[in-house]
Amino acid sequence: MPLHIIRNDITKMQCDAIVNAANTSLLGGGGVDGMIHRAAGPELLKECRTLGGCKTGQAKITKGYKLPSKYIIHTPGPVWQGGNNGEKELLISCYYNSLKLAKNHNCSTVAFPLISSGIYGYPKEQALQIASETITQFLAEKAPDMIVYIVVFDKNSYLISEGLYSDIRSFIDDKYVDELHEDQTLFGSRRMISNEPTSMALDDFVSDECRKPEPPAKKGLFGSKRKAVSKEESKPYALLSEEQEHKDLSMMLQSMDESFSEMLLRKIDEKGMKDSECYKKANIDRKLFSKIRSDRLYKPSKNTALAFAIALELPLDETKDMLQKAGFALSHCDKSDIIIEYFIEKEIYDIITINEALFSFDQKLLGV
């Protein structure tokens, strides 16, 4: 998956490069900037003093020193001033210039904090949207094999708007209530009406016909008379001939249903999409897509199957069908499934937006 959103301490990320939301002096500060300087050690500050600062929206690179990452890319983000003072353009530049530096230094994995969303006051929802869109576009156009992480440190924060969060929360609650109501109706109504105990014996499910006594067996000299068995009945089942086995196997293979891979490729053609357009829209690595394409019996993970359903903008019934081909189903007992159902019902098929919501509810993201 090219873009991941995770909760972690960015100073512990084992990537080729991590990005520091620095100030323009590059000499350290609070928040993420201070964490990175402390973790990297005093050698980082010495090198930063030789760089002559950095303008907002630009980026400069140093060694990682004591960090697990090889490089640190420093980029000063904009201070939020209401949104009408070029903040968006500057924030886009932070991500673009940082990724460009990473690519020029042959970095295959890069970790970003959510730039400017801390003490600089950029609204988290907007900051995440800009980060996701800029990174996704850069990867699609210039670095398809690069893996990028957006690292969020605060475990108690969510990144989508309060209104969307509340709307999804209500949708989840409604679905769980419906499921509970169905269970109570199915298993509770009979007991409530007849006051029967909850535990039922096997006899409760046996018809009267099944309870009829068998006629007494005729007895011979030594007890019950046994039924005579012919020589043909006493023979073991004959093994199928090799020719018959091959014939049966051939018929079974011919009658096999369409596989997940075949359905996926058919849907891509029906939508008039290119393969690359589909797997990029699904936030899926092209190497994984190649595996799926080359193996008609490939079994993807549930989240990968859902990612393709979202990329293809399938309605709910077709999404369920695609999941079934992969051996899965949507469930109202699964919070993640309900969130995805919410977006499909709303006809919102932007996987980044869906992943932001899944992240805010501590669910696994769609993709690999």
Give a written overview of the molecule.
With 368 residues, the chain is of the alpha/beta class. The protein contains 14 helices and eight strands. Strand 3 and strand 4 form a beta hairpin. Helix 3 runs parallel beside helix 4. About 15% of the residues have low confidence.
What composes the largest sheet?
6 strands, mixed
Portion of residues in beta strands equals 5-15%
Radius of gyration (Å): 31 Å
Mean pLDDT: 83
N- and C-termini, Cα separation: 5 Å
Q: Indicate the overall shape.
A: globular
Provide the structure class.
Answer: alpha/beta
Q: What is the strand arrangement across the widest sheet? A: 1-6-5-2-4-3
* Poorly predicted spans: 182-214, 217-240
Number of helices: 14
Number of strands: 8
Would you list the SSEs in sequence order as H and E?
EEHHEEHEHEHEEHHHHHHHHH
Fraction of helical residues:
40-55%
List keywords for this structure.
368 residues; six-stranded mixed beta sheet; two-stranded antiparallel ribbon
Describe the secondary-structure layout.
Layout: E1 3-7, E2 17-22, H1 31-40, H2 42-48, E3 60-63, E4 71-76, H3 87-104, E5 109-113, H4 124-141, E6 147-152, H5 162-194, E7 219-220, E8 223-224, H6 231-234, H7 242-254, H8 260-270, H9 275-281, H10 286-294, H11 302-311, H12 316-325, H13 335-345, H14 351-360
Parallel strand pairs: 1-6, 2-4, 2-5, 5-6
Antiparallel strand pairs: 3-4, 7-8
